[in-house]
Every structure is written in structure tokens, then in C-alpha cells.
Amino acid sequence: MFVDFYGFTLEHDESVFIPTTITKFAAQKILVEGKKVLDLGCGIGPLAIYYAKNGADSVTAADVYDRHVEYTKWNAMRNDVDIEVIQSDLFENIEEKFDVISCDVSGVDRRVAEMSGWFPNGVPTADETGADIICRAIEDAPKYLNTGGELYVCATQFSDLKKIKDAMDKNNGSMIFEKPIPFSKELVANVDRLNPEHYQKRGSRYTWNFSLWKLEVG
Predict the structure, then answer these.
(1) Of 19, 40, 67, which is closest to residue 149 (Cα–Cα)?
(2) For residue 160, pLDDT beyond 90
(3) Which of 96, 122, 212, 215 sits in a 20 to 30 Å window from 38, CA-based?
(4) What is the CB neighbour count within 10 angstroms for residue 162?
(5) What was the pLDDT predicted at 157?
(6) Cβ contact 118:198 at 8 Å
(7) Which string of DSSP letters, residue by residue, matches the chain?
């Protein structure tokens, strides 16, 4: 199976997470020209390949899930870009420092992920706050950023955003972008099981918010 991402094609199967609206917004908002970039939680490689094709000086892609690592390597090769791909639980196997770290790891309450089929079986998910993996990344990222380096974190309204904000505040980070996203049919079918803090309703339309957060190391 194949999916198009900003003009290039990514191969995937049912065992992996494919690019979403979140991934597309992140690609548009994170500037990487001339930068040394780490794509943390790379999935099948959409952002890493996008960055490599859009002026990044070098790109490293990392993911904890072995199938994602395999597909990122294959998709980088078939799209003729040079990317270093590492299997790593967040920064566990990362040894260098970067100018930009793009972090698009699971930011969805595990219960929401399970009821909506957000992730295929086998793909690691967040805990019931939806914020544990993101907060770990925020805490450790400054050690892997060059002076003036930037961390960008993707989050959803299905996370405990207060925990994410608190973690960002400790490093003088903040939200820089927010966008309402329409419910999938799976979320609509399960809306009665959701926490009302997880969504907005306008007439018959349900939405949840995607947010992008940024911190910079001085």
C-alpha cells in the first residue's frame, strides 16, 4: 500500500502508523533549511523525508517500533534521500546534538486510541494522560540541542495539555500553533465515551484541537 505526502510516495502496510493531518501541519510549520535535524517518532518516514527534500543539512530519524524503522529506511531509499535511521526509545540511542528536534510521538490518551483505532496493534501508545511520552521528550530534549536549537512537539486535545504546558514552562517553551480537526467516523461513534474536555461541539460537528509547541535552548 502507498500514501502520498506532499508529492512523494510512502509505502506502508496495516501494521504501521501512516501520516495524518497532524504530520502535514508539522511539516509546514517547522523550518529546517540548513539545519541538522532529528525526527523523533518518525513513523514510516514522512517528516524525515520531507525535511531532507526541503533543505535540511542532515536528517536523523528515530522510532522505538521496529516496523517503523524498517519502513523509514525503505521509504528514504525509494525517495532517494540520505537519512540516518535509528531504533530508539526517544533519546535512548541518540548520541549527537541537533539544531532542530521534531517530536511527533503518541500524544493521545490510550483509551481514546483504543476505542478509535488510532494506532495499529503493536504501535506503542501513550498512557491514560496521553502526555507521558511527550513530557519525557520535553524533559530530555535540551541535552540533545545545540545552542539556539529548537524542539517542536506535536500534541492533541486527547492529551493532558496542562502536563505538557507545565513541562514546556520549565524550559520557557510555549504553544505556537493550534488548529481544530474534524472527528473521524470512529470518534463520532464513540463520542459518548469521551471526556468533554477532549473536544468541541458546534451544531452537529465535533472537533478536537491539534497544537504545536516550541522550546529553544539559549
Answers:
(1) 40
(2) yes
(3) 122
(4) 10
(5) 96
(6) no
(7) -EEEETTEEEE--TTSPPP-HHHHHHHHH---TT-EEEEES-TTSHHHHHHHHTT-SEEEEEESSHHHHHHHHHHHHHTT---EEEE-STTTT--S-EEEEEE----S-HHHHHHHT-S-TTS----TTS-HHHHHHHHHGGGGEEEEEEEEEEEETTS-HHHHHHHHHTTT-EEEEEEEEEPPHHHHHTGGGS-GGG-EEETTEEEEEEEEEEEE--
Question: Which cell numbers in the block locate residue 98?
Answer: 541537533
HSE-up of 169 (CA within 13 Å, CB side)?
6
Q: Smallest Cα–Cα separation from 23: which of 39, 12, 37, 9?
A: 39
Residue with cell 458546534: 202
- Cα 189–chain centre separation: 25
**Which are the contacts of 153, defined by CB distance < 8 A and separation ≥ 6?**
103, 134, 137, 138, 164, 168, 173, 212, 213, 214
Local confidence band at 31 (pLDDT 50, 70, 90 cut-offs) = very high
pLDDT, tens digit, 9 for 90 and up, residues 106-127: 999 999 989 888 888 888 899 9
- The HSE-up count of residue 19 (CA atoms within 13 Å, CB side) is 26
